[in-house]
Write a structure and sequence with these properties.
single chain, about 150 residues, mainly alpha, 6 helices, about 45% helix
């Protein structure tokens, strides 16, 4: 199961060394990239960040990516739906969500949202248990006379 884990940002110390070297005209972006074993895009990114924000500190991870589609009111709706119909599949929940809120949602996003809001689904067994002894082949039917 592969998790999407972002690599750690480059250290502040390295960022400052690259910026200082560039400010001291110790080489071009490409030369500094080679010297510090970085890509030229990374060095350019450090310089751009300094120009735009006045700092070379890495961005914070907050606000990265898409906002969750399932907020508190929507989680409450899903809880109510599942209380009435606990056997709904993720796909069926997605369809109900789309009808109610006018937005599509993938089954994986639905699953993440249910987990985030600790909404559990108690599904019934999909097969009917057999009432026959193990190894029996007659499936509970008796053949013959009484």
């Amino acid at each position: 199961m592969g998790l999407n884990v972002m690599p750690a940002p480059y250290s502040l110390d390295l960022r400052q060394k690259v910026i200082e070297a560039y400010a001291n005209k110790e080489g071009s972006i490409r030369q500094l990239a080679t010297r510090f074993k970085l890509s030229k895009n990374t060095v350019s990114g450090f310089l751009k960040r300094l120009r735009e924000t006045g700092t070379v500190h890495p961005k914070r991870g907050e606000g990265v990516g898409h906002p969750a589609k399932i907020d508190e009111p929507r989680a409450q709706y899903l809880t109510e739906v599942l209380q009435c119909e606990p056997d709904l599949t993720l796909q069926e929940l997605c369809q109900r969500f789309e009808v109610r809120f006018g937005e599509t949602i993938s089954t994986s996003a639905m699953d993440r949202g249910l987990k985030k809001h600790r909404i559990t689904r108690k599904k019934k067994r999909s097969t009917i248990p057999k009432n026959t002894p193990p190894g029996s082949n007659n499936a509970g039917l008796s053949i013959g006379s009484k």
